[in-house]
Amino acid sequence: MSYCVNCGVELEKSEKKCPLCGVDVINPAQPFDEKAPRPYPRRLDPITERINRRFVGAMITIALVFPALLCATINYSLDNRLTWSLYVMGALFTVWVITVPYYWLRKRTLNRLFIPDVLALLLFLFLIAALQQDRSWYWPVAVPLILIPSALVYLNIYLTIHRVIRGFVIPASVLISAGILVTAIELILKAHGGNMRLDWSLYALIPCLAIAMVLLVIARKQSIHDEIKRRLHL
């Protein structure tokens, strides 16, 4: 039987490091045996972890449903119909879609988490337009202002998760996306007013592209990349 030289914990043959303090186990008389039975599981019970996640999702749901029902009750008791409470319920529903599925979904993928969030935002803005009885701004302004940044964020997350981009290419991609987003916002807003000329967005687009180009050059120079990482202790 081995004992940790640092904290004295009794160690099994299946232990390569002390489970308490993390010190390496060195005992020539009892070498590490990966096939030996472990005194505790390698990871948490997935059933218990899933129950805990569902509990958190349920608590968030209750915390969001209660104020929604309260506002609806007050609104209906005062006006005999739902008016301003629909804004509150729509906002709380959007928050629910953004937060709770992360805890309730067994298999969490980018598509399952991200796409419903975008649809919930579009639905909430459509509700606002419908309640105001003015949809002139919804399709030409609201929809593009939601879809374009969502597409850029999705693209950057997807490329990073699948390691298509890495290192200095990641901030370069974010800066390029930010420049495109600012330009798109100005074009959308000016198109709604009948003017398609770029103005203030150029002050953000040009620096973003310039810094992104520098980062891309650094990423291509492996020696510079390694030197910077060594000096910054990354």
Q: Beta-strand percentage?
A: under 5%
Number of H- or I-type helical stretches: 7
Q: Kindly state the mean pLDDT as a whole number? A: 87
Biggest beta-sheet profile: 2 strands, antiparallel
> What is the general shape?
flat
Strand neighbour order, sheet with most strands: 1-2
Contiguous low-pLDDT stretches (5 residues minimum) are none
Number of domains: 3
What distance separates the N and C termini?
A: 39 Å
* Radius of gyration, whole Å: 27 Å
What is the H/E string?
EEHHHHHHH
SS-derived structural category: mainly alpha
* Topology, number of strands: 2
Helix percentage range:
55-70%
Question: What's this, in brief?
Answer:
The chain is an all-alpha fold. 67% of the residues lie in helices and 2% in strands. The chain has a two-stranded antiparallel ribbon.
Care to describe what's here?
The chain has 234 residues and is an all-alpha fold. It has 3 domains: 42 residues, no CATH class; 90 residues; 99 residues. It is built from 7 helices and 2 strands, in the order ββααααααα. β1 and β2 form a beta hairpin.
Q: How is the topology of this model organized?
A:
Layout: E1 2-3, E2 10-11, H1 46-79, H2 85-104, H3 110-132, H4 138-161, H5 169-193, H6 201-220, H7 222-231
Antiparallel strand pairs: 1-2
Helix pairs in contact: 1-2, 2-3, 3-4, 4-5, 5-6
